Amino acid sequence: MEKISPHHPRAESLRIRACLVEGFKSGLVVPEGLAAHGRGEAFDYILGERTTKQAERAIEATGAMLLLAERPVISVNGNTAALVPTEIVQLAEAVNAKIEVNLFHGSTSREVAIARWLKKHGAKEVLGIDRKFSTRINEIHSDRRKVDRRGIAAADVVVVPLEDGDRTEALKRLGKRVIAIDLNPMSRTARAADVTVVDNIIRAMPLLIRYVKHISRDSKTKLHRIIGNFDNRANLRGTLKFMFERLKSI
Ligand code: PTJ
C-alpha cells in the first residue's frame, strides 16, 4: 500500500481510500465501489467526519437488536470487506451472527475472494458461497436476490452495510428487521431500515463492538427498552438537521 504521511491533514481519509484501492486491485471491490465510496465521503465531510449523537443512538439500538435476534446475519459486500474485515468477524462473534457474502454486482470469483479474505481475518464460516445452500428472494431485482438458505433467507435480523435501495425494502416485506449502515440519511435504504446508522463504517463498527460488549449482560427487558425508545425516522430527521446546521455554520 502506498505510504501516507501521518502529518497529511487528510491522512485518515487517504488511508481509507488506499484500503479501497487495494481492495479493488485484489479483486474484492468493484469499480462502482470506488464511486460509492466517493459519495459516502461527501456525506461524511458534511457530518464533520465524526460520529454524531444520532449515530451513537442508532449504534446502541443496533447492538440491542442484534443481541435479541435469534438468527442474525451480517451481509458483506466488496466495500465492507475491504474496509472492516476484522470488525465484521469480531461483531459476528460478539452477537453470534452469521456472515454472508451478498453482492450487488454478482461474481463467483469475487464471492470466493471475499470469503477467503474474511477467513484470513478470523472468520470460521462464511455463507453465500456454497451453491448447495443457494436460494432466491424473488422480490429483490438485482444479483443480491441470491442468498444462502442458512443465512439471509432464514434470518430474523439482517445488517446491510453500504447498501443499494432495493434490497432493504424487499427484506422488510419478508418480515425481517433490517439494520443499515449508510452515510446518506436520504437513501431509500436509510429510510426503509428499522435502524439506520448514519456514520462511516470505519468509525461505526469499532463503536458498535464496544456497545455490544457494554450491554451484552443487560436483561432482555432492558434491551427491548433500548429498541422501544429508538425512533428511526426521528433519528434521521435529527441527523439531517445536524447536517443542515453544520452547512449553515460553515
Ligand atoms: O460489492 P458489491 O457488488 O455488492 O457493490 C457494492 C456497492 C457499494 C458498489 C453497491 O452496494 C452500491 O452500488 O451501493 P450504492 O447504491 O452506491 O450505495 C452505497 C451507499 O453507501 C451510499 O449511500 C454511500 O453514501 C454509502 N457509503 C459509501 N461509503 C461508506 C458509506 N456508508 C458508510 N460508510 C462508508 N465508508
Task: Characterise this structure.
The protein has 250 residues and is of the alpha/beta class. It is built from eleven helices and seven strands. Strands 2-1-5-6-7 form a five-stranded parallel beta sheet, with helices on both faces. Strands 3-4 form a two-stranded antiparallel ribbon. Helix 7 (165-173) links the parallel strand 5 and strand 6 (177-181). Helix 3 (53-68) packs across helix 9 and helix 3 crosses helix 10 (220-228). The radius of gyration is 17 Å and the shape is globular. The protein starts with 10 loop residues before the first helix and ends with a helix. The structure holds ligand PTJ. Ligand PTJ binds at residues 30, 32-33, 36-37, 39-40, 43, 77-79, 83, 103-105, 162-164, 181-184, 187, 200-202.
